[in-house]
Every structure is written in structure tokens, then in C-alpha cells.
Amino acid sequence: MLRVSNIKINISLDQDKYIKKKLSSIFDQDIKEYKINKRSIDARHKPDIYYIYEIDIDVKNEKEYLDLGIASEVFDEEYKIDQSKIKKSLKRPIIIGFGPAGIFCSYILAKAGLKPIIFERGKQIDERIKDVEEFWKSNNLNINSNIQFGEGGAGTFSDGKLNTMIKEKIRQKFVFKTFVECGAPEEILYLNKPHIGTDVLRTVIKNLRNKIIELGGEIHYNSCLTNINVDNNKIKSIVINDQDEYETDDLVLAIGHSARDTFKMLHNFLEMSPKPFAVGVRVQHKQDLINKNQYGESYKLLPPADYKLTYQTKDGRGVYSFCMCPGGFVVNSSSENNRLCINGMSNHDRDEENANSAIVVTISPSDYGSDIFDGMKFQEMLENKAYIEGKRLIPVSLYKDYKLNQVSTSFGSIKPIFKGGYSFGNINNIFPEYINNSLKEAIDYFNTKIKGFNDDDTIIAAVEART
Ligand SMILES: Cc1cc2nc3c(=O)[nH]c(=O)nc-3n(C[C@H](O)[C@H](O)[C@H](O)COP(=O)(O)OP(=O)(O)OC[C@H]3O[C@@H](n4cnc5c(N)ncnc54)[C@H](O)[C@@H]3O)c2cc1C
User: Fold this and answer.
1) Best probe residue, ligand 1, of 108, 149, 239 (max atoms within 8 Å of C-beta)
2) What is the chain's mean pLDDT, rounded?
3) Which of 266, 299, 329 is the last residue of a domain?
4) C-alpha separations of 193 from 43, 89, 297, 307 in Å
5) Same domain flag for 103 and 67
């Protein structure tokens, strides 16, 4: 099989017909079948917008085309578990946390025949959904069953963007194929920026769980790791919910970024170091505004547009957009009492009226202190201020009022789209001055990239503290 890159077809054309036509001319033979390996959008020459394809194809006289450099050979290597490397332990491995990391770790260990035991502090997905919806309705938070904690982990109530910084393709393909086997749309195998959507993810997670159980894995919910027993610098057993002890030789901590109580407990056993992160707000614009900026008037032929923006402030601080959710919701994603944080979420169709994204400012130990938990304390402080500013609800403001350091009294042309209650507050009261200044400088600059980004009516909400 050969792979041919850079097949460029205008989005207004019948894609299948023109792909075949183009391939037939490149290979000088009639092409009836092909497989898309990758598809991206090229909108650099608006109003002409193109899909760019990488196509895999079987043709006659492959060698001839390879020699001419027209195509390359396809090496579709499958991810395989190397049985020779599997340690034959008498005790079953234990995994803490059933988010993406814990799920895939468990699945691979289960495929290797090691029958992992998984402990997850939150509930099974259906129960968890009820708790999250109840929280959005009544503001009654369950600290172990919420947007951060429970089966599927923090990304379950998300856009389901499949982001990775890992360039290694074999494992990546394995992950994507597993998602498709469990109910994700096939398009994730070839789209340049694949996403699943929170509605579809919920089914995918259930199917992944069932695969693990079928392979001999065992999942315990409502089960929080509360201590570790170490003997001679080696793990002996773990303690769940302060009472039940389980022996193991192999422990995987897949606990995500929000289990602050567990981080403190682990500090007794592990060396840890603070790491720079970013905090900020989430902005909402009309999706149409983003579409028109990115694609011009052809946007109706294309899926909802996204963006990625970066800026360096005059005093050298990095500000960037993060976790952009086309056609989505801004959600209250708190997991601790008296603290409030937010995030973004979309369904697969991304069909809500607004686009949202986090606009965050990079901060480092020189801003918040070099003690091991100073960064965490800083996050907690911001989340508490957001909780107070919003009177227990998501604090929101028009961008105009954020700049004028005042509380908004009504929304403008953009209808707010939130999951969870919200109330007007002065976002300036939440952050130190250098963060407020950096955010405003960057949002005004982003208007030079996306016209309307800093409109008076742009809705901002806080606080994004868990990037
Ligand atoms: C609302 C939202 C939207 C997001 N959208 C996206 C997106 O579109 N794309 C993207 O790539 N990323 C997104 N993210 C980030 C993404 O969720 C995380 O990168 C990802 O979930 C990390 O996976 P993980 O398995 O390491 O940790 P997590 O998903 O955080 O999972 C950790 C699990 O461990 C459990 N746990 C913690 N402590 C204990 C303990 N002591 N005992 C037992 N269990 C414990 C938790 O309950 C949790 O289920 C989003 C996050 C949020 C909150």
C-alpha cells in the first residue's frame, strides 16, 4: 500500500469524486477505492478553502511510483504487548484512578493477563452524571463525585479533544482505535484535530470499562486511596477509605491534577517538585464570529471553527488560549467546598451558539513561592476568591466591565451558555494585578487575530485554575 500526501480539494466540491479523479491522474490508472489517513483544513487563502488529504491506496506498479517519489510506503505497525517483558508477580497490580491514564493503564495490563485491581474515589458514570447535574442545578457539591472525580476522570465532561504531545504514532493509533471499538466516531482516526464530545464519551467509557472487566480486571468505586504502607523502601500494601488494606508489589498512581488531599498524603512517600502552570479566565463569543473570522463566508460548509492564540506581554509573560471548545458550554467544574473553578465542554456536534476557551497566563514558582505546595495553595486561593466573588456561583462579567474594573449589570448581544449557576462579579477582585493586566493586554491583542475578540459584550468567567 502507498501513501500520497497533499491532495488538495476545494471544500465546495464533491470530495469523493474529486479525490478519485486526482488519484487517477497521479497514478495514471482508474482508482475506485482509497482510505483517508489524515484530513486537515487549509483556510489560508480565503475565500478559497481546501481540505488537505493524506491518502492510502493500493495501485498497480507500486515500485515505479516509489522510485519517482510520488508516494511513500505505508508501515502500519500495530501496538503489541511484549509478553517477554511481563513480570510474573504473585500479586495483582493496583491502579489508583480511572481517568484516561488509569483506564488505558488498566486496559493494557488486563490485555497482558495481569488482572489489575482499580480503585476510583468517585462513582460509576451513570451515578456520577446524576451528581454533576444535581450540582449544576442546586449548587450542592459532592466532593468525591463531580466533574473532576469519578469514572472516566476529568475529561468526561469535556470537549473530548484528543490532544497529545506524544509524537510516537503506534501507541497513539492504538488509543484511537480502542476509542472507535468502544463507540467513538471513525473520523477520529483521520481528522487533524479529532474530538469525541461529552455525549459520546460517556458510552465509550462504559464500553472500555466492560472490556477491562471481561479481561479479568476488577474496579472498585467510592474507593479512595488514603495511605500507603512501605517496608524497606518498597510498597507493601495500600489503604482504601482509611480502613481496607490491599497488598501489592506494583502500584500505579493515575490520580490526575485535582486530588490535592492525595498529593499531600503522597508527599510522605514520594519526592515531588513544583512545576509552572497557568491560570486565567474563560471567554465566550458567538461561534458565528469565530467561524467567519477563520473561514470567511464559506463557514457554513465546514464544521465549527476553533482557534489557538498566543501572546507575550510587554513584561515578558506568556498568555495563550487553551482548551478551546467550539459550540460548547462553560461548566462549573469545582471539586472542593468553598472553592470554584470552571472549564469547557462540548457535545460531539458542537452545536451550541457560543464558542469558549480559556485564556491563561503562565506563572511559576517565582510568582507563588518555591515551597512544594505553594502552587496548589495559590490555586486554592484563586478558587476561593472566585467562589466569594460569584456568591457561590460562577462569577461572570462583560469584557467592557472587566476593563473598567466594575460589575456588569446585564449581558449584551451574546447569550451566556453555562452549566451551573452564575452571577455578575468583578473578575479583577480574583487575581493579582499582574494577571489582570496580562489578560487584558492579551485579549486586546487577540482582537488583531480574531476581529471582535475584545468586543465589549464578550463574556468572561473565572477561574481557570486547573490547566
Ligand atoms: C471540564 C474539563 C474539560 C476538559 N477538556 C479536555 C479536552 O477536551 N481535551 C483534553 O485533552 N483534555 C481536557 N481536559 C483535561 C483532561 O481532563 C485531563 O488532561 C485528563 O483527564 C487527565 O487524565 P488523568 O487520567 O491523568 O487524570 P483524571 O482524568 O483527573 O483522572 C484521575 C482520576 O483519579 C481519581 N482519583 C484521584 N485521587 C484518587 C484517590 N486518592 N483514590 C482513588 N481515586 C482517585 C479521580 O477521581 C479521577 O477519576 C479537560 C478537563 C476538564 C476538567
Assistant:
1) 149
2) 95
3) 266
4) 15, 40, 22, 11
5) no
Residues 149 and 216 in one domain: yes
pLDDT tens digits, residue range 164-220?
Answer: 888 888 999 999 999 999 999 999 999 999 999 999 999 999 999 999 999 999 999
Kindly state the cell numbers that stand for 21. 479523479
412 plus 292 within the same structural domain: yes
Domain that holds residue 384: 277-464
Residues with CB under 6 A from ligand 1: 96-102, 119-122, 147-150, 153-155, 157-161, 163, 224-225, 254-259, 262, 323, 331, 333, 343-345
The answer to whether 117 and 105 are in contact (CB under 8 A) is no
Interval between CA 69 and ligand 1 midpoint (Å): 44
* 147 vs 140: CA distance, rounded Å: 13
**Model pLDDT, residue 166:** 81
Ligand 1 centre distance from Cα of residue 148 (Å): 6
**What pLDDT is stored for residue 86 in this prediction?**
87
**Which band of pLDDT confidence, cut at 50, 70 and 90, is reported for residue 370?**
confident
**Rg over CA atoms, the chain:** 24
Q: Which amino acid is at 298?
A: S
- Centre a 10 Å sphere on the Cβ of residue 89 and count the other Cβ atoms it contains: 11
CA distance 289 to 299: 10
CATH code, domain carrying 23: 3.30.70.2700
- Tell me how many domains the chain contains: 3
Distance CA 402, CA 427 (A): 6
Residue with CA at minimum distance from ligand 1 atom 47:
149
**Cis (ω within 30 of 0) for the bond into 331?**
no
> For residues 239 and 226, is the Cβ–Cβ distance under 8 A?
yes
Give the whole-angstrom CA distance, residue 414 versus residue 179. 35
How far does the centroid of ligand 1 lie from the alpha carbon of residue 466, in Å? 10
